[in-house]
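=== Structure Prediction Worksheet ===
Name of assembly: unnamed complex
Input type: mixed (protein and possibly other molecules)
Chain count: three
Listed entries:
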Amino acid sequence: MEFGPHLMLAVLEGAVTAAVLALMASGLSLVFGVMRVVNVAHGQFFMLGAVLAWAVSSALGGGAVGFVAALLLAPVIAGALAVAADLTVLKRVGYDPERTIVATIGLLYILQQAALMTYGPEARPVAPPFNDRLALPWIEFGPEGPGLIWPWGLSITSYKLFVMGAAAAVLAGLWALMTRTGIGLVMRATQLDRETAQAFGIPVERVYAGVFGLGAALAALAGVLIVPIQQAHYLMGGDALLLSFIVVIIGGLGSLGGTVIAALLIGLSDGIVSVFFSPTLAKILATLLVALVLVFRPEGLMGKAAR
Amino acid sequence: MRGGRLIGLHLGLVAVLFALNFVLPAYSHGTVARVMVLATYAMGYNILFGYTGLLSLGHAMFFAAGMYGLAMPMTHLGLGAGPALLTGIGSAAVLSLGVGLLALRTRGVAFMIVTLMFSQAAWLTILLAGRWTRGDEGVVIPQADRMLLGLDLSDPSTRYLAALALFSAVLFGTLWLVRQPIGRVLVAIRENEDRAELLGYDTFRHKLGAVVLSGTVSGAAGAAYGLFFGYAGASFAETHYSIFPLLWVLLGGAGTVIGPFLGTLFMFYLIDLTSGLTPAYMLVAGVALVLLTLFAPQGLAGEIRRRWWRGLP
Amino acid sequence: MSALLSTRALSRSFGGLRAVHEVDLDLGPGEVRALIGPNGAGKTTFVSMLIGRVAPSSGRVLFDGQDITRRPAHARVRLGLAYTFQITSVFARLPVAENVALAARRRLGRDRAAVAAEVARTLGRVGLTGREKIAAADLSYGHQRLLELAMGLAQAPRLLILDEPTQGLSEPEIETFKALVRTLAGETAILLIEHNMGVVMELADRITVLDAGVVLAEGAPAAIRADARVQAAYLGTAADA
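=== Predicted Assembly ===
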């Protein structure tokens, strides 16, 4: 393949990554935005989504039915687990930022190791419900002027297009929830000032539990969506967490719009950079970039100064 | 109440560990030697977390800097063990100075994430430099090279005593430090940084000093681990190894001199036992972290201090 | 002029809001100066700029002839400024004696005996002798304010900035505080931010009135009491309280 089509393929692959990443990171960002705590176990809910997708779809004999069931069930189960963790652990440490991080590190290992004990160390695939290969054209400037060609290998599957569409739909729904509904209003009020919200009769603890659950559900949904593309494995949460951190920090902690833009940026550049360079080097550069953003521009590249 | 009893307690610990050299069965003998080196790492971590109040999630990079700062010149340049120990410690000192200068511009949660990110980058760099580091597989330091001042560190008893010497030096060093004015300032920063600044203490420089000291001690432990056990591998740079000292210190008691040792000893044996039963042995670490956060944020030595001995440093 | 502390056109705005605007102030050695004004007049912002907790938008701060506008807080403290917080800020989990020792040690260094003597002397002065070993958090609120004061004194400052020191104190505690401040005459200059007019009128050599970020009036207590503008802006509502 020539450079142009190669680049386009990288962009498309990157867009899939970006879609999944945006879902995951928006969950992390939501939790930080409203609760002011960092959920280090967030990547494990992503892993949980993927593992549950395998469990549900193989229990139902695979196929489209199993996948749709997983799409609905996995986020609910992960969300319920997160609510339980919030009520038994985070609430009891009073959402103190540092103690919450230590507790969610503990939660990280509990979830990850529980997956190892039950699901095992294997990586397992889930068949996508549909997977038609769609060849894509490329414009070539030949001696007779521009014309369409169909380079071999330049294609995308219908499932990958579905992932992008589904992520966009869920994010739009999340945005509508936050800005257009009473629940969103309550969440934003809690985010602005916990004490005042409480004084106005907002059940802050229930909001927190709900937000923590919703954040985990978003991660799990991302996990379900990715599993037909990338197999489910009990260690897959680590990289996912790191990438989400990168996205959330570059996009500005707690800003949904910034998160989506940053996910696109990171997803696309990850796709492009790792096609042309060593993926390890790409990760090193991305990690260092994020650390430096936090050091020199803690409000994120796109965010406004906090408070 | 100053002095005597305290020195007695810590000397007693060292004496017991010394006596154990002669009575422990082979397996435990090796384990305790390892625990002493890892407890040194935990004590290094404790200087920053326990006494200065800065929670780092990236100390594995300092441990690994010591380990690779020792192993790389030994493997590729034929450097002797003694000078290599110094290059190891020096690498950790330089790295912690650089990381401190950058990371200390942030506070709280951002500090934790910045250190995590730097450490992740360090681990990936070790993998990227696989030509020299051999990545996850790691490099073995041949037995013949593990000679320090005429002592053969591959001999179990020599290795045990060398580990004890390092451990004791850092134990008494910490005990001395925290009773010095400078140690008191670190505690003051932990308790109320604004107030410390407005008593005229340059809190940034004190925190930077704490990062460098903590990172250097951690690196010394890493270098010693590589030298004593003849191996340097990328797994020591992974996030696990940043979480471990946090767990050990929390369990033993943050901000106590003896706590890191207690925590390392208990947790090491607990994980050792569990790993015989299941590959999911890190479950124990996870459960311990949650339980400690919920029920005993002071740790073992912290509980002792709260209940019986208020002056325990 | 041999002013100890001077500000020149010192200003600070927060996003367009002028909290402090071009304040000139001169405070002599050993002087007790009160800074008063209604809530939101910019008093706390102003002293925060003196001590280095808030950076000025423009203007200068001079201490003992040196321009300290860009110096960090700890460097200013080393020159001889001391600050007690409006909201009690002590090392809550450390013993009372260690709180004061931290303040004294910066000046006296490693000399344990000198530090211990200074701690004993200062705690005696504020009347906290006998409470050395309890944690600062276990002191009553009034005693915590006294501890703050002791931490200020143990630094042997040349200018002690007291931000609302009598807030929340009982009447007898306020009497103790006033007596203590009188004993400091000649030892250190004092800048007193205070709401309690009785305390201000009794202790201050001079009073500066801040209103909406600018200096409204400055003068001896009697003159300030008589100033019509001050009465209109401030005293008219607060003097009866």
